[in-house]
Design a protein that fits this description.
alpha/beta; Hypothetical protein af1432; 3 domains; 4-stranded mixed sheet
Length: 448
């Protein structure tokens, strides 16, 4: 019979493989990291099956399309709560890396000793990998790890001692202390090499990315009194097109009930609305996407009262598709500006294969035949522009990627998303991970 931990291993491995996630530096299957963390947790004296399952699942909500509700349905409330305690709560708009990490540190400080044991195992496995492959970021990581260890003391004592030893050995390997890094956010490098004439284009991305808000997506939330749906007698048949109900207590919506949690003859599974699920009408679409990464439903409030709901399916609405496509087009224009600045007078042609260059020349000739102005770089395919852009190591680093391979993977995902948007394909199910990465990167780099 399959154990809870075995089921979690199968579920997590499939979820991470489904978005083609690899380890950041070694490009090994992500399962390698999950297995290491789970084995460390299983080796502790007080480990139970829920802890080992949560160790396998600890990155699933944060990194894949899986939500907390799905974790609960599959593995129960205990495992879900452990995963929730291990999932970062900070958002890209909460400030620089140091500010975001402090928010997440406070969240970790409130976690249970069982969750802290899993976090210790996660730090141990990540420490060597990061410090060996990225010495510059390793110093940042070691400082953040030292701060986390201050709040992880009631985790497993053996893993705590192992984490401290690992941190010291990595610091010695780097020849650095665990004191704060001189620069706590590598994304600040992005502006250092931008020509001044390109900055208006960067601001254009920022302005467009902030042009839409939760109000443009939210649908009214049908709410019912808790007394009318608690117990085994409630049926959703009278509301055939309602995916979720707000649950009122003393006149205020405090809970919610998903249609799929209503079963004939069984008590309805009512969930408390987590404050992390609630946004204002003016919240950005990047914030909406952040919430929908963790939860099935994002709730919208006015003056503290929940009045609307946004589902992941709402990402298919024209306003979001236009928003995503517009950002990608602006990023493409931005990349072309930088390519022109980096390789003036079409000197970039030596960086592109002859076959791809010939296709660009054919398109340029056709445009000129039609009387249209067209620089050769404008006639490159979107994928060619991205590949050319990421030929330059400082462009890779400035865009927030650890390696050129990671940038290439993200570029492929972005091109797929662009094509699916252009051809009216479903994006909420098949392109969720690229959408999340795009939203996070736009907010981190462009401040939108």
């Amino acid at each position: 019979m399959e154990t809870l931990a075995d089921k979690a291993r199968r579920f997590a491995t499939s979820a991470h493989a489904g978005i083609k996630q690899l380890r950041k530096y070694t490009l090994q299957p992500y399962e390698v990291h999950l297995k290491a963390v789970a084995h460390l947790v299983a080796s502790t004296t007080d480990a139970d099956e829920s802890m080992v399952a949560a160790a396998w699942l600890h990155d699933t909500v944060e990194d894949t399309p899986t939500t907390f509700e799905e974790i609960e349905r599959e593995f129960g409330e205990d495992v879900m709560n452990l995963v929730k305690q291990l999932t970062d709560v900070s958002r890209s708009g909460d400030g620089n890396r140091a500010a975001r990490k402090e928010i997440d540190r406070k969240h970790t400080a409130q976690a249970s000793p069982r969750a802290k044991t899993i976090k210790l195992a996660d730090l141990i496995d990540n420490c060597t990998d990061i410090c060996r492959n990225d010495p510059k970021f390793g110093r940042v990581f070691l400082h953040e790890m030292s701060l986390l260890l201050e709040v992880l003391g009631d985790g497993d004592p053996r893993l705590f001692a192992m984490a401290e030893k690992k941190m010291r050995s990595c610091a010695a390997m780097l020849g650095k202390s665990t004191s704060p890094a001189e620069e706590d956010d590598e994304l600040h490098e992005f502006d250092e090499w931008l020509p001044k004439e390109i900055l208006p284009g960067q601001r254009g991305i920022r302005l467009f990315a902030g042009a839409f808000a939760a109000r443009d997506l939210q649908e009214p939330l049908l709410s019912l009194d808790a007394e009318s749906i608690e117990g085994a007698g409630f049926t959703a048949d009278a509301f055939p097109n309602v995916p979720v109900f707000g649950v009122r207590r003393k006149g205020t919506v405090t809970d919610y009930l998903a249609r799929e949690d209503v079963s004939p003859g069984a008590a309805a599974r009512i969930r408390r609305i987590d404050p992390q699920q609630v946004l204002s009408l003016e919240s950005s679409l990047t914030d909406v996407i952040h919430v929908l990464t963790d939860y099935t439903f994002c709730f919208v409030s006015i003056d503290g009262s929940v009045i609307g709901v946004i589902r992941r399916d709402d990402i298919e609405k024209p306003v979001v598709r236009m928003w995503l496509f517009g950002i990608i087009i602006l990023i493409e224009i931005f990349m072309v500006q930088i390519i022109r600045s980096r390789w003036p007078d079409d000197s970039w042609t030596s960086e592109v294969s002859e076959g791809r260059l010939e296709k660009a020349r054919e398109l340029q000739a056709e445009r000129k035949r039609r009387g249209l102005e067209a620089d050769l770089v404008d006639c490159l395919q979107f994928s060619d522009k991205q590949q050319l852009f990421f030929r330059e190591p400082k462009f890779v680093r400035g865009s927030g990627f650890a390696t050129a391979a990671a940038a290439k993977t993200a570029a492929t995902d972005l091109e797929t998303l662009r094509n699916n948007l252009a051809h009216g394909q479903d994006i909420s199910k098949h392109d969720w991970a690229p959408i999340v990465r795009l939203a996070r990167r736009v907010e981190q780099i462009y401040g939108a």
